């Protein structure tokens, strides 16, 4: 396969990025397998404390001497939640705690997520080949720090105005995240409506207007999908859902069972985290959708609110209360090792 700029920047052999999937799905083992296959894998560290993040990165380094990358969510704006807002959200979810036999919540205290600046220090200390970020822009100083250490920077965009602002910021490349993508939607302003642009259309738009490499993400599951999107000018594909049933992924057993059904539709929802994300429909998604809007806290507070429910559900082998993040083509998923999945994609 003819080399392109992005492959040279990342020093990889095939135009494949194994996507960052937060919540323990992107294990060091999965990241290392991607590297061994000539691709690059991303550790999704957004929910990790700096200490745990450092340990995860060091585990990858033990498993492979090849390149890997790290992904973070951008710094969240401070949330000034009222006691009434928090109480409504707690009341809306306590029935599920009762059902799962876990203590009812009475309060929810910040911080709701790890500090981005401390996480970013871990990135700089470990010098991964690439660093990607989602949910907006980082500071120009962050880009400069990465440039000093020759860390490739990759932003995430769901519409052209975001892509142009990322290019102006100085990123080396960006992910064009189509609406088909599983997991969190990367649009910058959580109060805006979803741009709702398909991967194909997004890549076509970006290729015409940008002069940096574009990575296609969303709904890509097989060789046919890859060939189609690369022919539109994408420099690489980013695939996550395709690896959820791999032995190396950190997918829980009830999550795997739901994926194996191949009958559940996917839907965008805010009910688990407070930001739109695509996942397999289950009872929690359906019932919580009918609650009044102000029962859902903004991200990342809602994510902190539902964490105990999701954790207990995984322990109890109960998929109806898990965030089953998956792309719109999840029904096409295959169950193989990560190396087999990559091999069957037939990159030349």
UniProtKB/TrEMBL annotation:
Cross-referenced InterPro entries: Aldolase_TIM, NMO
GO molecular function: nitronate monooxygenase activity; nucleotide binding
Protein name per its UniProtKB record: Nitronate monooxygenase
Transmembrane segments: none
Catalytic activity: 3 propionate 3-nitronate + 3 O2 + H2O = 3 3-oxopropanoate + 2 nitrate + nitrite + H2O2 + 3 H(+)
Keyword line: Detoxification, Flavoprotein, FMN, Monooxygenase, Nucleotide-binding, Oxidoreductase
Family: Belongs to the nitronate monooxygenase family. NMO class I subfamily.
Top-level taxon in the UniProt lineage: Bacteria
Cofactor(s) this protein cannot do without: FMN
């Amino acid at each position: 396969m003819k080399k392109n700029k992005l492959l040279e920047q990342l020093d990889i052999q095939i135009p494949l990025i194994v996507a960052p999937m937060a919540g323990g799905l992107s294990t060091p083992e999965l990241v290392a397998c991607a590297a061994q296959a000539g691709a690059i894998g991303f550790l999704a560290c957004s929910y990790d404390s700096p200490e745990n993040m450092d340990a995860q990165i060091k585990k990858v380094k033990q498993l492979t001497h090849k390149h890997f990358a790290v992904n973070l969510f951008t710094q969240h704006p401070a949330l000034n939640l009222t006691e009434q807002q928090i109480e409504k959200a707690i009341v809306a979810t306590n029935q599920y705690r009762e059902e799962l036999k876990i203590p009812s919540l009475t309060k929810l205290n910040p911080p709701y997520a790890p500090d981005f600046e401390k996480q970013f220090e871990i990135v700089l200390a470990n010098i991964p080949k690439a660093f990607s970020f989602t949910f907006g822009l980082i500071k120009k100083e962050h880009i400069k720090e990465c440039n000093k250490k020759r860390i490739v920077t990759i932003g995430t965009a769901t519409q052209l105005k975001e892509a142009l602002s990322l290019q102006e910021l100085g990123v080396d490349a960006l992910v064009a995240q189509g609406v088909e993508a599983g997991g969190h939607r990367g649009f910058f302003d959580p109060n805006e409506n979803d741009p709702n642009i398909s991967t194909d259309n997004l890549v076509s738009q970006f290729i015409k207007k940008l002069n940096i490499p574009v990575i296609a993400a969303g709904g890509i599951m097989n060789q046919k999908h890859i060939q189609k999107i690369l022919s539109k000018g994408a420099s690489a594909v980013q695939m996550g859902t395709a690896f959820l049933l791999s032995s190396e992924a950190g997918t829980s057993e009830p999550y795997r069972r739901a994926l194996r059904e191949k009958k559940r539709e996917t839907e965008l929802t805010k009910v688990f985290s407070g930001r739109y994300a695509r996942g397999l429909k289950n009872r929690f998604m359906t019932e919580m959708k009918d609650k009044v809007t102000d029962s859902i806290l903004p991200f990342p507070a809602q994510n902190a609110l539902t964490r105990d429910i999701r954790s207990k559900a995984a322990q109890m082998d109960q998929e109806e209360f898990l965030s089953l993040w998956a792309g719109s083509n999840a029904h096409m998923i295959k169950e193989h090792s990560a190396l087999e999945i990559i091999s069957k994609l037939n990159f030349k």
